[in-house]
TrEMBL record:
<keyword id="KW-1015">Disulfide bond</keyword>
<dbReference type="InterPro" id="IPR019793">
    <property type="entry name" value="Peroxidases_heam-ligand_BS"/>
</dbReference>
<keyword id="KW-0964">Secreted</keyword>
<feature type="disulfide bond">
    <location>
        <begin position="123"/>
        <end position="329"/>
    </location>
</feature>
<keyword id="KW-0560">Oxidoreductase</keyword>
<comment type="similarity">
    <text>Belongs to the peroxidase family. Ascorbate peroxidase subfamily.</text>
</comment>
<dbReference type="GO" id="GO:0042744">
    <property type="term" value="P:hydrogen peroxide catabolic process"/>
</dbReference>
<dbReference type="InterPro" id="IPR033905">
    <property type="entry name" value="Secretory_peroxidase"/>
</dbReference>
<feature type="active site" description="Proton acceptor">
    <location>
        <position position="68"/>
    </location>
</feature>
<keyword id="KW-0479">Metal-binding</keyword>
<feature type="binding site">
    <location>
        <position position="72"/>
    </location>
    <ligand>
        <name>Ca(2+) 1</name>
    </ligand>
</feature>
<keyword id="KW-0106">Calcium</keyword>
<feature type="domain" description="Plant heme peroxidase family profile">
    <location>
        <begin position="27"/>
        <end position="333"/>
    </location>
</feature>
<dbReference type="InterPro" id="IPR000823">
    <property type="entry name" value="Peroxidase_pln"/>
</dbReference>
<feature type="binding site">
    <location>
        <position position="195"/>
    </location>
    <ligand>
        <name>Ca(2+) 2</name>
    </ligand>
</feature>
<comment type="similarity">
    <text>Belongs to the peroxidase family. Classical plant (class III) peroxidase subfamily.</text>
</comment>
<feature type="binding site">
    <location>
        <position position="76"/>
    </location>
    <ligand>
        <name>Ca(2+) 1</name>
    </ligand>
</feature>
Length: 354
């Protein structure tokens, strides 16, 4: 970790503690498992390295799992719950169904940790650590991850709303502010996770043929890039919708590397998703300057990404005696209590482009 980044994070942590901010309130600390499970990061990292060898997409998948978990009632591992007599799983909600992946790797991580330090490491913390390691293993920054989250007894169910691939900039900003993130640097930095990973045709096909009902392609989409995408994603015929599930790279250049090419793509009108291109192509937007900065200065992007990831990881975590430490990330240890101690709202149960 660079000295500049280390100093920046230290200042962030100190300010949050002194002001009673997210870091102090959440009671999270990087050394939370130093005594109870000191090898937790190494165990998760080793399994992740093994997963990378057979599936290079797994890094981006873990970032997406973490985002989709944190944006729905906070970072509490609720996304990992399967359907049961008392749980309606978020996995089958529209933004997640046949989309989020990597649950089998989470199972391996949890089983390994339970064999060494049973009942200690939460599923929510597993997602957080694995996300940081995924970024680092893909060429991005590394950082000390605040830990100590506990697992939810509840799921957000089917009625969840996340920042969507078709959202205009104002709506993206609203959804970020709604969960407690800012609508400029957090929005742009976290969107930069689209520097790796894949997207299905259905997430951008309207931009190619009928943008906003015009019968034309999105004018903010580079014409050459649009032709390439139309060859990949032709208009479905004879009811054949399999085209919608065809995958392409979010970043067509350094496809599996975590770098700042996402932002140079936006400058060239080659952002794959509408929600991406909105950051740069919305006239007069304050996000344009941030995109330009990150495009010209990868270090600035990395530093902002780390700060925003830590902020996102501290969205409404369960700590102390709240929730539980699941022994299996897919199921709660016991039926949920009759009275829920933490409020929930449909508005906070923020189809995702992140």
């Amino acid at each position: 970790m660079s000295s500049l980044l280390h100093s920046l994070l230290a200042a962030l942590f100190c300010a949050a503690f002194l002001q009673g901010g997210f870091y102090a309130q959440a009671q999270l600390t990087p050394d939370f498992y130093s005594q109870s499970c000191p090898n937790v990061t190494n165990i998760i990292s080793d399994i992740l390295v093994d997963a990378f060898t057979s599936d290079i997409r797994i890094g981006a998948s873990f970032i997406r799992l973490h985002f989709h978990d944190c944006f729905v009632n906070g970072c509490d591992g609720s996304l990992l719950l399967d359907n049961s007599a008392t749980i309606v799983s978020e996995k089958e909600a529209r933004p997640n169904n046949n989309s989020v992946r990597g649950f089998d790797v989470v199972d391996r991580m949890k089983a390994a940790l339970e064999s060494i330090c049973p009942g200690v490491v939460s599923c929510a913390d597993i997602l957080t650590i694995a996300s940081e390691r995924s970024v680092f293993l893909s060429g991005g920054p590394e950082w000390e991850v605040p830990l100590g989250r506990r697992d939810s007894l509840l799921s957000g169910g089917l009625n969840i709303v996340l920042p969507a691939f078709f959202d205009p900039l104002d709506e993206l900003k609203r959804k970020f502010v709604l969960v407690g993130l800012n609508n400029n640097t957090d929005l742009v930095a976290l969107s930069g996770a689209h520097t790796f990973g894949r997207a299905q045709c259905f997430t951008f096909i309207e931009r190619l043929y009928n943008f906003n009902g015009t019968g034309e392609s999105d004018p903010t989409l580079d014409a050459t890039f649009a032709r390439t995408l139309r060859r990949l994603c032709p208009i479905p015929t004879d009811g054949n919708t399999t085209v919608f599930t065809i995958l392409t790279n979010l970043d067509q250049n350094t496809t599996d590397a975590f770098d700042n090419r996402y932002f140079t793509n936006l400058q060239s009108n080659r952002g794959l998703l509408q929600s991406d291109q909105e950051l740069f192509s919305t006239p007069g937007a304050d996000t344009i300057e941030i995109v330009n900065n990150f495009a010209s200065n990868q270090t600035a992007f990395f530093e902002s990404f780390v700060v925003s990831m830590i902020r996102m990881g501290n969205l409404r975590p369960l700590t102390g005696n709240e929730g539980e430490i699941r022994s299996n990330c897919r199921v709660v240890n016991a039926p949920p209590p009759a009275t829920i101690t933490r409020s929930s709202s449909n508005e906070l149960n923020l189809v995702s482009s992140i």
